[in-house]
TrEMBL record:
InterPro entries: DHS-like_NAD/FAD-binding_dom (IPR029035), NAD-dep_sirtuin_deacylases (IPR050134), Sirtuin (IPR003000), Sirtuin_cat_small_dom_sf (IPR026591), Ssirtuin_cat_dom (IPR026590). The keyword Repeat does not apply. The active site is at residue 120. The lineage of its organism: Bacteria, Bacillati, Actinomycetota, Actinomycetes, Kitasatosporales. The keyword Protein biosynthesis does not apply. Its EC number is 2.3.1.286. This is protein acetyllysine N-acetyltransferase. Keywords: Metal-binding, NAD, Transferase, Zinc.
């Protein structure tokens, strides 16, 4: 590893880490835009995650429930990358994890839930799109298994959806504000396993840099933010993140 990066890691007191699909691929959860990605392999799948199509077409909703039922997140385990960020928190150097992932693998690894900002929500909860009541995904999938192809809200009869952010759906303002705050207040910003093509998540890199933080991008493919990064690392995440954290924590 470059000496320069090691120096930043050792000196950093408040590190914010933005994580994307790339940190979870070693846990068996496919990314979206990589060569084996969900969108790359099957562009039609994008319809399942588009709010207008979801609201308009019961068949889209039925397919989406099956997609959720079969999602690898149910059986995935955290990997060395997730565990490294737990070590970073225990060493007192982690300000926040801002994640684009919906798989809860950071929490399952042992990161404190109050340090994990889930920009795109979680697949483990369901939300009613009319009354916003939240129900555990497990309970709703049990109704799917029992023969309801598109279970409606038991409270108001509304259309339900995973508590994730679909295309065409705005991020929660309070979640986004927490993410911006974490970007403004850190002294080192690590963008890990994200193609940085989805806004506003990607813009957090610029916010961090504008507020004086170092930016290190760790991703297999080039990203639009590589040009403003202080360093770009192309090594596999579950191998390199533990090394970076070991330097940061003096382990
Ligand atoms: Zn409802």
């Amino acid at each position: 590893m470059h000496e320069r990066i090691e120096g930043w890691l050792r000196k950093a007191r408040a590190i914010t880490v933005l994580t994307g699909a790339g940190i979870s691929t070693d846990s068996g959860i496919p990314d979206f835009r990589g060569p084996q990605g969900v969108w790359t392999q099957n562009p039609e799948a994008q319809r399942l995650f588009t709010l207008d199509a979801y609201l308009a077409d019961p068949r889209v909703r039925q397919q989406a429930w099956l997609f959720r039922r079969d999602h690898p997140a149910w059986h995935a385990r955290p990997n060395a990358g997730h565990y490294a960020l737990v070590d970073l928190e225990r060493a007192g150097k982690l300000l926040a994890i801002v994640t684009q992932n919906i798989d809860e693998l950071h929490q399952r690894a042992g990161s404190s839930p109050d340090r994990v900002i889930e920009l795109h929500g979680t697949i483990f909860w369901v939300e009613c799109l009319s009354c916003w009541r939240r129900t555990p995904m497990r309970d709703v999938l049990a109704r799917v298994e029992a023969g309801e192809p598109d279970p409606e809200c038991l409270h108001c009869g509304g259309i339900q959806k995973a508590a994730t952010i679909s295309f065409g759906q705005a991020l929660r303002p309070e979640v986004l504000e927490a993410a911006y705050q974490a970007a403004r207040e850190c002294d080192l910003f690590l963008a890990v396993g994200t193609s940085l093509q989805v806004q506003p998540a990607a813009s957090l890199c610029q916010v961090a840099v504008d507020h004086g933080a170092r930016l290190v991008v760790i991703n297999a493919e080039p990203t639009p933010y590589d040009v403003i990064a202080d360093a770009v690392i192309r090594e596999p995440i579950s191998a390199v993140l533990p090394k970076l954290v070991a330097v940061a924590t003096g382990a």
